[in-house]
């Protein structure tokens, strides 16, 4: 396919149908990438997660200064989960959203590497990756960098592969080495670079206006990153809370249905109420379960994408800063060499140092070319990033507004449905009668009141409670037998009265531990004439103190 014919014609792209390929350690999962073009053409290709990683790296390398959407890493907890359905589906969702963000970018959609990724057949795709691998090896051989980066190399291809140590040239302009920096040299260079990039006071080779512009952009990006990270993390927590609430509503709904159950003491209206509440909470469970899926798809995932876009902006700003640092470093080397050149020119007799002079002059010319190229790259990246940041700002807030509008509208409908489910259960709750009159029950006889028995003798008057009738009252199916009657001494006259009309107690009562009645030392005032004690009989001595226990 002619890559030029399909530029600006990509309409949509989707990732679906994961399949496992290979065996053993070579086993992997690939996905079907379906691409549609505006002329009606369709392209089908299968790509693995590593192929998507290749695409991301190529987009970053070919589009310096462009904010390339980040491809989030997905690492399983262990080897067994790598081929689990949940993990594979998660990867598919991530890759699908990544490609959709790429084709939505007006410049990234035109890149050659993307079009090759979308349209190459298996044979062509293998050749594309092999050519890229060869190019990486060539870049590594030229720069001494594993990734062919511009920023870890001090090699000068225009000076015969000479490595220029500008600091050493301060003392001797002919201190050059044909050796490339080794592992330790690259590590030290990277350490110096990181230290300079993390130093806010490090002066870069840029105009004050340019420095202020990108300093403001950096502050804006930092602010966005903090806010969107909080939103993304809390959105995940909200989505997870819906899932937990859904599970609790399900178990609580089942518990409400079983709360009264089949029992002879059950109340019909209460049972109806609990059944209604159980059905309501079961419906709320399904309602909340759907809300969990909705919040994940339309709040959690979009906010995560927006967060990743901010991460992509931060990476683009760091890339520009690295290019600016590289330009600043080469510019300082050029100034150092130029200073050494001026010192040589001040020598009266140049013939004595002609070789040194011409050698330094060639090195300086090469460095001038190198600085010019670095400056051009810095200006190109700064211009493209400045332009793309404006697109990013507009797109970011437009997408945020779209996410919030859709979520708020759907959330309002969800709450309306939830309120309706709750209100539908209110009538059965309000009609609940805690009594049991609506159930058929056996007639319950009235419990007779206990009676008092009064006994009179020469010893005084005794009062006893007759509860034989009350004890014979049926409770359910069990009849309680009456307590056996106990002797109460010599009785001359017995009078029965209702408990409600019992006489007031005498002034000095005494209680007998062996009897169920109370013994009084003197008869009540109203009963003295009916049974007077003999006149010759002496008064009874008081009982011992133990009788009062």
């Amino acid at each position: 396919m002619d890559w030029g014919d399909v530029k600006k014609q990509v309409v949509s792209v989707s990732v679906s149908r994961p399949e496992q390929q290979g065996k053993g350690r070579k086993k992997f999962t690939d996905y079907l990438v379906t691409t549609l073009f505006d002329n009606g053409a369709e392209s089908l290709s299968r790509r693995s997660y590593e192929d998507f990683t290749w695409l991301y790296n190529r987009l970053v390398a070919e589009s310096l200064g462009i904010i390339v959407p980040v491809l989030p890493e997905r690492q399983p907890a262990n080897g067994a989960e790598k081929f689990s359905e949940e993990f594979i589906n998660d990867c598919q969702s991530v890759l699908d959203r990544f490609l959709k963000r790429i084709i939505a970018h007006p410049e990234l959609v035109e890149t050659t590497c993307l079009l090759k990724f979308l349209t190459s057949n298996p044979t062509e795709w293998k050749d594309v990756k092999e050519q890229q691998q060869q190019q990486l090896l060539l870049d590594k051989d030229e720069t001494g960098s594993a990734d062919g980066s511009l920023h870890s190399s001090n090699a000068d291809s225009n000076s015969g592969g000479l490595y220029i140590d500008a600091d050493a040239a301060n003392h001797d302009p002919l201190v050059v080495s044909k050796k490339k920096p080794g592992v330790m040299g690259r590590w030290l260079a990277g350490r110096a670079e990181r230290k300079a990039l993390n130093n806010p006071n490090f002066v870069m080779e840029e105009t004050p206006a340019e420095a202020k512009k990108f300093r403001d952009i950096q502050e804006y990006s930092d602010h966005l990153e903090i806010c969107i990270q909080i939103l993304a993390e809390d959105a995940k927590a909200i989505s997870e809370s819906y899932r937990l609430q859904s599970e609790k509503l399900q178990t609580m709904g089942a518990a409400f249905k079983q709360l009264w159950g089949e029992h002879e003491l059950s109340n019909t209206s209460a049972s109806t109420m609990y059944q209604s509440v159980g059905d309501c909470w079961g419906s709320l469970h399904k309602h909340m379960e759907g809300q969990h899926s909705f919040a994940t798809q339309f709040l959690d995932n979009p906010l995560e994408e927006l967060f990743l876009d901010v991460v992509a902006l931060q990476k683009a700003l760091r890339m520009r800063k690295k290019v600016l640092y590289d330009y600043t470093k080469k510019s300082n080397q050029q100034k150092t060499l130029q200073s050494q050149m001026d010192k040589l020119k001040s020598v009266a007799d140049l013939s004595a140092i002609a070789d040194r002079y011409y050698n330094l002059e060639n090195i300086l010319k090469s460095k001038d070319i190198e600085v010019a190229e670095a400056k051009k790259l810095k200006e190109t990246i700064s211009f493209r990033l400045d332009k793309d940041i404006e697109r990013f700002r507009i797109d970011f807030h437009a997408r945020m507004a779209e996410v919030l509008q859709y979520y708020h509208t759907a959330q309002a409908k969800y709450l309306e449905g939830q309120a309706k489910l709750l209100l539908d259960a209110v009538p059965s709750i309000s009609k609940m009668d805690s009594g049991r009159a609506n159930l058929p029950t056996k007639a319950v006889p009235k419990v007779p009141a206990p009676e008092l028995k009064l006994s009179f003798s020469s010893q005084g008057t005794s009062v006893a409670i007759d509860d034989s009738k009350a004890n014979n009252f049926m409770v359910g199916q069990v009849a309680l037998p009456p307590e056996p009657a106990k002797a109460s001494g010599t009785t001359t006259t017995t009078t029965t009265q209702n408990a409600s009309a019992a006489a007031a107690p005498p002034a000095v009562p005494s209680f007998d531990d062996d009897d169920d009645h109370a013994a009084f030392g003197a008869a009540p005032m109203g009963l003295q004439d009916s049974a007077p004690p003999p006149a010759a009989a002496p008064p009874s001595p008081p009982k011992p103190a133990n009788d009062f226990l």
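The longest strand covers residues 10-21. The mean pLDDT is 74.
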